[in-house]
Amino acid sequence: MLNFRYYNPTKIIFGKGVVDKVGKETAKYGKKALFVYGQGSIKRIGLYDKVVKNLKEAGIEIVEHGGVKPNPVLSHTRAGVEIAKKESVDVIVAVGGGSVIDEAKAIAAGAVSDCDVWDFFEFKAQVKKALPIITVLTITGTGSEMNAGLVITNEEKKAKFGFRAEPLFPKVSFLDPTLTFTVPPNQTAYGAVDAFTHVSEVYCNRAKRGVPISEGIMETIMKTIVKYAPIAVKDPENYEARSELMWCSSLALSGITWCGVGDLTLPAHMIEHSLSALYDIAHGAGLAIVTPAWMRYMKERRREHLLDFAVRVFNVDDIDEGIKRFEGWMKSMGCPIRLSDANIPESDIDVIAQNAFELSKIWGMADFYTVDVIRDILRLCV
Ligand code: NZQ
Ligand code: ZN
Question: Angle at CA 342, nearest 5°, toward 241 and 313?
């Protein structure tokens, strides 16, 4: 095993009806909460009323910051930071998916700092402290509920950047699989692809092969997602499928998978962020397009890793067949697998590659992932 450092302080409260404890847990961190949520799904499923009632019963004063959009944007985040500062909130309660939780994390950092919140994303400032964050997850995939990462789009710069900082681990995350029963089939599939690629990217880039514990965890997560995602797509209220997907997603980017195999490396994510920044497509949809192309591009350089992937995840002994099965699984759930499936013109490849290279530099990947390499990978998405 390679040396590693593992740290994950998020308390997970999992199961049916656990949201009833949100007030009690939040009260441990203060009396005034910023309640961050998205564009209406939590009102439609009756969760908004439940959370408000529960917080109030625990004596917590609520300040609202709703309207977070999927692929959350900097302007709305800055507005949240202003409210949090003006109202001097003690704690942030984020109810929603990765977008809501990510924006809540940025606000948590911005609220206790003097710099502009975007400075963190360009590594001009470091997050040394943050307001405590409580999350109630309503859609699975990103793992934001159990990690210290966040991704925000700067609309002016057309840049979707992300970073991780330890103070941004949520203190407590409530995971009730029944809250995801209403997630539509396409979003269910995109979330599954996202969680899957959080593992497959680590697996196919691992610096050390032959670490049975971490490889076993990764293979089990990938196989479990492959099995249960199509079930949840077809049968949205299948509790077993929703709960397996929920826990897999949380574990997938929690840090547990890359212990002893090398650092987290996310090249397909780096390229995908440009697709969602430029075309506002769902993150998981973009990954369904980029990840198989990345695998094809890396076939010679990652031959052993990709063969492990084909054999141990898709039960075939050929790399090309493994990638095909992976694509077929995503396609069967309605994901786009080519740029044209998402109405992204081939003629934009240069612009996308230039955009992605900015993140490649910020993430320290520019030695290998040059504009030319990114362009060649994108050509395999056609
Ligand atoms: O806006 P609302 O009302 O919340 O509706 C959302 C949104 O339209 C809806 N939805 C959520 N829960 C629902 C529901 N609809 C019906 N019933 C429910 N129970 O689903 C749509 C998508 O939600 P969103 O939060 O955008 O999805 P997701 O969780 O996939 O988050 C995507 C964002 O997270 C980032 C992505 O880049 C993207 O910006 N990521 C964050 C990561 C992290 N923090 O570690 C890692 C990932 O790689 C990813 O980059
Ligand atoms: Zn992702």
Answer: 40
- Asked if 229 contacts 192 with a C-beta cutoff of 8 angstroms, the reply is yes
Residue 6 lies in a domain: no
User: Model confidence at 219, in pLDDT bands (50, 70, 90)?
Assistant: very high
Q: Flag whether 3 is in a domain.
A: no
* Element housing 172 (H / E): strand 172-175
Q: What is the pLDDT of residue 63?
A: 98
Residue given tokens 């203190």 in the structure block? 171
pLDDT in tens, 79-126: 999 999 999 999 999 999 999 999 999 999 999 999 999 999 999 999
38 lines ligand 1 (CB under 6 A): yes
| Other beta carbons within 10 Å of 98 | 27
Which atom of ligand 1 is the closest one to the Cα of 162?
50
Structural domain count of the chain: 2
Q: Are 159 and 269 in a shared domain?
A: no
Chain mean pLDDT for the chain: 98
Q: Is the CB of 97 under 6 A from ligand 1?
A: yes
Tell me the one-letter amino acid at 20. D
Q: Which atom of ligand 1 is nearest to the CA of 147?
A: 45
Assessment of whether the complete model's pTM goes beyond 0.90: yes
250 lines ligand 1 (CB under 6 A): no
Average pLDDT, integer, range 179-184: 98
Q: What is the mean pLDDT of residues 143-167?
A: 97
AA letter at 208: K
| Centroid of ligand 1 to alpha carbon of 98 (angstroms) | 4
CB atoms within 10 A of CB 238: 17
Q: What's the domain range around 44?
A: 11-178
What residue's CA is closest to ligand 1, atom 16?
A: 183
**Ligand 1 centroid to 231 CA: how many Å?**
20
The answer to the question of residue 4 being in a domain is no
Q: Which of 74, 283, 359 to mutate to test the pocket of ligand 1 (most atoms within 8 A of CB)?
A: 283
